[in-house]
Amino acid sequence: MKISTNWLKDFVALKPPLERIADALTMAGLEVKKMEPAGQVRDTVFEVEITTNRPDWLSHVGVAREIAAVENVSLRMPSPDTAPIRLLPAGWKMDIKDLEACPYYTGVYIEGMTSTQTPDFMKERLLACDLRPIHLIVDITNYVLLELGQPLHAFDADLIRGQEIQIRKAKQGEPLIIIDGSKITLDPHDLVIADHDRAMALAGVMGGKDSGINDQTRNLFLESAYFHPRGIRQSSKRYGISTDSSYRFERRVDPEGVDLGRERAIELIKQYAKPRFISGVLRAGRKPTTAKSRIHLSLSALEKTVGFKFKTHQVISILARLGLEVKQDSTESLNVSIPSFRSDLAKPIDLIEEVARIYGFDNIPEHLPARAPHPMQGMSRLKLDDKTREYFAGIGFHETVTFSLISSEGLDPETDLKKAVSIVNPLNKELTRMRPTLLPSLLSVIKKNHAAGEKRIPIFEVASVYSQQGNLPAEEKVLAVALSGYWKQKSWLDPTRTATFYDLKGIVESFFEKLGIHTYHFLSLEKSLLESPGTETIRIGDEAVGFLGKVASVLLQKWDLEDAVYYAEVSLAKLLRHVRWDRRFKEVPKYPSADRDLAVVVKDSERAGEIAEEIRKLGKGWIAAVEFFDLFQGGRIPKGFKNLAFRITYQSAERTLVSEEVQTLHTEIAETIVRKFQASFQ
Amino acid sequence: MHPVSPLPQPPLSELEAEVKSRVGSIQSLEDLEAFRIAYLGKKGKITALFEYLKSLASEERVSFGRELNQLKRFTEESLQSKKQELGTQGSKASGSFDETLPGIHPLVGTTHPISQTIREISRIFERIGFEIAEGPEIETEFHNFTALNIPLDHPSRDSFDTFYTATKQLLRSQTSTVQIRVMQNRQPPLRIIAPGRVYRPDAVDASHSFMFHQIEGLMVDESTTFSDLKGILHFVLRELFGSETKVRFRPHFFPFTEPSVEVDIRWGKGWLEILGAGCVHPNVFQAVGYDPKHVQGFAFGMGVERIAMLRCGIPDIRLFYENDLRFLRQFP
User: Fold this and answer.
1) Which of A368, A386, A468 is the closest to B232 by Cβ?
2) Measured between alpha carbons, how far is A398 from B24 in angstroms, rounded to an integer?
3) Interface test with B, best of A49, A56, A353 (most B CBs within 10 A)
4) Helix, strand, or coil here: B130?
5) How many CB atoms sit inside 10 A of residue B251's CB?
6) What is the pLDDT of residue B50?
7) CA B171, chain centre distance (Å)
8) Which of A114, A158, A540, B163 is paired with B217 by a 20 to 30 Å CA distance?
């Protein structure tokens, strides 16, 4: 909102420089965002940001009142006679059909305007506040709104049918052409101002075109009312129309402002429009609050909340400067009566804030509290997140942060898409689902980086995936890893190669080892959007904790990717149950070991892992390690066969093995393997 | 000579290590030739071991022989590849050590600047006894609004536009939801911070995104005051932005706190808003079943991206979510 400082000077003295006042207001919570010169007269405009709890600041008088409190100077309110003695207009009827939506409505009939010239000072001030002068009467209603915060509306009295004003709910489908010329079809929840025949205005929001002030208007009907905030807000939201008027009504206007605002406008109309006749006030309903509310403020509660002991006279002075009436009940308690314009003050805490705010938050001393330490909950979950990031960054991967909202692109319609949580009011059609997997997000990152010329793209992300489980959404934190392009950077000393499935598998394996998980195993898996064979589920015991595989070419095509992408997704939530943080020392082998190689030719269908497992089993406890070190096909190896080479490390924890016994065992193992797997030696 | 030990003597592993280290230090063709003579020449160390092999008993001879042959093969291969390498280096081959050649870098990855910032802020709070809490991102109306004293149909709701799901849940618009969950499940004293993703249907531009990260915090017990709020937040901001950081506490309005404050830090010639905070509103305590007469404390919230942008001079929030490796590598 824009505030003219020239206008403020009508109500309060502004001790220069204005920068100081702007700063003082900001530090009282009425933030002055900008200060700039305005108009041909020498005016400075404050652009202020007003929080929703302070509708009383939405006017020049409101801001002046705050300046009076902060600067401790006096406030001069506009004071038209609010109980004038004038004749009631003959023949006019007024009726409120919904006293909840409109508790209080007043109107004045004005006849025979003889001038419509808006005075220069008013034009200047309206322009300074970004309002264009339109017509004297409209300008006066706007002027009063900006001055006192009370919205008013003026009808052309000759366009009101039947000299009748009804404040009622709209009829289903009732039409209304509003001032900007657009037609709206009203809803039965809308409150309207109607004449005998039809709705003339959407109450508190906007007037109608065919009852409004125009160049021919000579007689008018001036409305000043109090509308319930909720109804105004709903109508304003329903049609997407926010006006200076609806903005104030939905935040609640000062009920006392209804009479003040109307009479202030009449004062101006009398002076500048020079009408022949101004009627007495037609009233319907009652002002919502007449008795002032009271709050007891305990001084010890003030001290306990803020952590600072204010002097009692300071507290009283601050509250009084804010326009509140303060009486001291006892040495401990103040009895504060709340004026109608401060509807935000309802509880003692509201007054505590007022005292602290005006005293100045920056003037309240800081304190560092001493508190007993307490145990932390859920630390191992966070530790797992940290270890995961640490591990992957440590092996050269880059952590990404991608949006949880995605499109349905790249989700399998049969599985992922069906269980995805969908958003009913998406920002755009690309962001309609909470992702059930991170795969599409990481593919997009790969695509972008590939386009930027990256030859090696190792990335990972720790984030949640979401799925709909009946009516309830479920969230699970996962680790997603993707690898594409070179395995490592080419250098002048070393060549490189492209990454493979086995690189990713090794990464996953060593990640598990780092977490103290040794009982994992892999089973081949068919999964849509991943290549099969070439995809494995990762299991710990009987529980599937994740999967890894090569991204299917249909998906790569969708993302316009040529290079293979390997992808793994592991549930950190599930992994957490298997992680072991404690580390136990195991005796470092004391006795020497001996390596023997075993190379066998087997059918393609045989599994290296099973052979290695078998070797281990046959080792009588003397095998420390079985390392798979070569796979060879083609050449002298017949078609349909492969050569597998294992390096077996023999070692005993009890003694040094003699060469003969190693050799005997090795031969035994070799023979068993040959028999069991129908293998042969090359 | 008959070996006493069943294992070969001398240990080949030592010799292998020696060969490896010597290969690494070869800088010229001259070095290379010296290396060849030392190991594979007529009087070379490996050549000599083949003589020794002959002296072994037959079983020993098989195993020792195999290992010795492997070592010989390895040495020959090293010689060959080194020769090629020196060959391709042209003039450098005959010249001396070139100290301007780049080192070979190991694989170095990065954590995301957002996680780095969250981690750093979390560490500061952990040092002063705060726990880190987490909660769901898909939330209920109650946790995101009602319990936080944000009534439906109230203008204070306007600054909290929200995404809704088909089953009438919503994507949390602030991580204060975690405070509510923690307070519902535990009794004071509480000192927690809750980092995480939040969602608001804002149009995306250089400083707005529909998804971003927040850290919300809460300290509640019988006696935590506004003065404590100032002390703790000032401490944290100094830790984060440097000990000279100037801070101001500016009154503001949030439905869930009172008094409410926005905290600005001095930035160049002006002030920059860095976090929002306040004493927990009695209505919030009531909503979680605490008695506002007996508990008090403060809550605060800050935008992670905003802090990272300020500290690192990142001009556009969208850079965080693009994950361009050229961007990510700038934050090792």
Assistant:
1) A368
2) 31
3) A353
4) coil
5) 23
6) 82
7) 26
8) B163
The H-or-E segment that residue A95 falls in is: strand A93-96
Q: What whole-number distance in Å separates Cα of residue A345 and Cα of residue A322?
A: 12
Q: In Å, how far are A96, A192, A248, A573 from A102, measured between CA atoms?
A: 7, 10, 15, 55
pLDDT at position B92? 46
Task: Tell the residue number behind the tokens 């909470």, with chain if given.
Answer: A434
Place of tokens 């919205």: A151
Dihedral angle at the C-alpha atoms of B220, B222, B225, B228, nearest 10 degrees? Answer: -70
- Tell me which amino acid residue A422 is: S
Q: Are A398 and A423 in contact (CB under 8 A)?
A: no
Q: What is the DSSP string of A10-56?
A: TTB--PSPHHHHHHHHHTTT-EEEEEEEETTTTEEEEEEE--TT-GG
B2 contacts: CB under 8 Å, gap ≥ 6 = B55, B57
Three-state secondary structure of A367-417: CCCCCCCCCCCCHHHHHHHHHHHHHHHHCCCEECCCCCEECCCCCCCCCHH
With CB atoms and an 8 Å threshold, state whether B252 touches A29. yes
**Coil, helix or strand at residue A437:** coil
**What are the φ/ψ torsions at residue B253 (nearest 5 degrees)?**
-130, 125
Does residue A647 sit at the B interface (CB-CB below 8 Å)? no
Encode burial over A495-528: b for 16+ CB neighbours within 10 A, e otherwise.
Answer: eeeebebebbbebbbebbeebebeebebeebeee
Chain A residues close to B249, C-beta within 8 Å: 361-362
Q: What are phi and psi of A37, to 5 degrees?
A: -70, 150
Residue type present at position B35: F
What is the pLDDT at residue B8? Answer: 44
| Cα separation, B232 vs B241, whole angstroms | 14
Distance from CA of A113 to the nearest CA of B (A): 39
Averaged over A303-307, what is the pLDDT? 96
The amino acid present at B75, given as its one-letter code, is T
pLDDT 10s digits, B134-167: 999 999 999 999 999 988 777 777 767 899 998 8
**pLDDT per position as a tens digit, A573-599:** 999 999 998 988 988 889 999 999 999
Q: What is the mean pLDDT of each run of 10 residues along chain B (332 residues)?
A: 43 79 80 85 84 76 79 84 70 67 90 97 94 94 92 73 90 93 95 96 91 97 96 96 94 95 94 96 96 96 96 96 97 92
Report the residue count for chain A. 682
3-state secondary structure (DSSP) of residue A1: coil
Looking up tokens 């997997």 gives A437
**What gap in Å lies between CA A170 and CA A193, rounded to an integer?**
9
**Please, what's the largest Cα pairwise distance for chain A?**
129
Side chain identity at residue B290, one-letter code:
Y
Written as six digits, the tokens of A610 are 């099973």
pLDDT band at A58 (very low <50, low <70, confident <90, very high): very high
**Do A63 and A3 form a contact (C-beta atoms < 8 A)?**
yes
CB contact under 8 A, B199 and A405: yes
Task: Using CA coordinates, name the residue in chain B closest to A355.
Answer: B259
pLDDT greater at residue A13 or residue A41: A13
**Mean pLDDT score of chain A, rounded to an integer?**
93
Edge to edge, the sheet with strand A293-298 lists A293-298, A333-338, A325-328
Look at residue A559 in the predicted model and tell me its pLDDT: 93
Compute the 3-state secondary structure of chain A and give helix, strand, coil in percent, each to the nearest 5: 30, 30, 40
- The pair of three-digit structure tokens given for residue A242, joined into one six-digit string: 């926010």
A·B CB contacts under 8 A: 256
- Residue A533, preceding peptide bond in cis (omega within 30° of 0): yes
Q: By the 8 A CB rule, do B144 and B164 touch?
A: no
In this structure, which amino acid lies at residue A449? Answer: N
Q: For A183-211, what is the mean pLDDT?
A: 94
Residues contacting residue B264 through CB under 8 Å, at least 6 positions apart = B247, B248, B250, B271, B272, B273, B274
